[in-house]
Amino acid sequence: MSIHSSFLRYFDEVCKSSSIRKAAAQLHVASSAVNRQILKVEDELGTKLFERSYDGIKLTEAGQLLAQHVSRTLHDADRTLREIDASISGTVGGLKFVSQGSVISRLLPPVLMRLYEEYPNTATSFIATGGKGLHKLVQNGSADIALIFDYKAEPGIELVDQISLPVGAVMAADHPLAMSELQQISMQACAEYSVILPDESWPLRDRLNRELSHTTIDSETAASSNSIEFLRAMLTEKKVVGFQTIIGLEEVLEEGSLVHIPLVSAEGGAVTQTLSVTLNENRQDSVFMDRALCLLRERLREYAMAE
Fold it and tell me: Which of 224, 254, 206 is CA-nearest to residue 105?
């Protein structure tokens, strides 16, 4: 079934085969019908789409621009027809999101709730796991979308969007460092206090290790955990200092029970961490996927603007 003019299919096939005759054979129509459609559109546009010679045909500059549009249009049409079929049958495919557990505290739920409101017959799920190796879950098809901290390019993975977030020293509001009302802080300034670090499964730990090498803090004796819940509890109830972006700590920071002071490196620059939206570059596109990515982009922009 086609929901667009036959010209789009004719033109697309001619582009692929570089021959009107071969395109017509592939489409099971007469060569004259294909040529007539192309000449008609060229006349309407007032420009040639193909350079014709004894060696064959070649797209003009205008033809190349139109070819890109036609390819996108046919691709979107095919995807939409699949979605319509799925909607009729009531079997719209769902999406699996994967990331560190911290994103489920505040960042991701509005996206999932909006998707449920707009697509009530479509399931979504979230898998919380260690921060390193998340891309492998996308590569092997275990997840559709991964939100990855400090993502580094990997084969077969498409980077959709990325923001940079400041890493801060985090402590209870009545901690001496919080009471000092510092605008920024170095890791060495935290050395005289007990600290808690993310464990080695968090990408942030690699960044913090570089800063730890410039301090007197003994990372071997410092408490560590891969649980954002444990981190929140330790920071709230104990006189310890942790290091984290605001992701996963939004509520307690807004309440004022914890304070986040931006961390500066030994060289004097801001310590930051990226958060990226990634997916398999060979994925099967869908309207639902596109909507999810749009909502994620909007959500990341909200966090970027808040910094």
Answer: 254
Q: Cα separations (Å) of 94 from 84, 86, 159, 178, 284?
A: 15, 11, 21, 44, 12
Percentage helix, strand, coil for the chain under 3-state DSSP, each rounded to 5: 45, 25, 35
How far apart are the C-alpha atoms of 181 and 162, rounded to whole Å? 30
CATH numeric code, 6-89 = 1.10.10.10
Tens of pLDDT, residue by residue over 95-139, are: 889 999 899 889 999 999 999 898 887 878 898 887 778 888 888
* Helix 287-306 / helix 109-118 crossing angle, nearest 10 deg: 150
Smallest Cα–Cα separation from 9: which of 88, 53, 74, 75? 74
Same fold, 6-89 and 95-162+275-306: no
Instruction: Please give the Cα distance from 264 to 167 (Å, whole number).
Output: 9
The CATH number of the structural domain formed by 168-270 is 3.40.190.290
Q: What is 79-125 written as a DSSP string?
A: HHHHHHHHHHHT----EEEEE-GGGGTTTSHHHHHHHHHH-TT--EE
The reported pTM is 0.69
Q: Give me the residue label for tokens 């898998």.
A: 127
